[in-house]
């Protein structure tokens, strides 16, 4: 109970969280980006979209984000506070903190959540990156995980990890337990890698 009260986010926190997601995933060209996509918090606070935010507010957003989208650390040399988005980038980021998945036993259940409206095209053409660097998946049944899917997902697509890995498609796991893949050479996970599709 104490933790939920401490992490109650007001409108200002939500606005800060959305601004951080956009800047750290899609607008990194405006900043001095370190390895792993880390950016200085003070540099971010100078951006127009975060001009009313504070260091404490950003720290609170990182701590309270239910999907654990952000990482925060202090640079060992400069003592500067740095922040990154763990996944969801539409721009290439050097040395993201991603762990390669080498066996389907490491993540037995991998699920992509989507909408019914796009299911027919997915069943025909497969899952695509849609302007991002990776396709995202939940690393387990939805009641077991907090990241990697939208709560509004109407359709669950289970991936045959054994088959996909054997065919050379790379998969990774982010620090917040999201499974990611760039797909095949066309940025796609073809329907032949779908184990099953369930409508919720």
TrEMBL record:
Keywords, sorted A to Z: NAD, Transferase
Q: Name one GO molecular function term.
A: tRNA 2'-phosphotransferase activity
**Keyword Transferase attached:** yes
The chemistry this enzyme catalyses reads: 2'-phospho-[ligated tRNA] + NAD(+) = mature tRNA + ADP-alpha-D-ribose 1'',2''-cyclic phosphate + nicotinamide
Q: Name one GO biological process term.
A: tRNA splicing, via endonucleolytic cleavage and ligation
Q: What is its EC number?
A: 2.7.1.160
The yes or no answer to whether the keyword NAD is present is: yes
State the family named in the UniProt similarity comment for this chain: Belongs to the KptA/TPT1 family.
Purpose of the protein: Catalyzes the last step of tRNA splicing, the transfer of the splice junction 2'-phosphate from ligated tRNA to NAD to produce ADP-ribose 1''-2'' cyclic phosphate.
Q: What is this protein called?
A: 2'-phosphotransferase
Name the source organism.
Answer: Argulus foliaceus
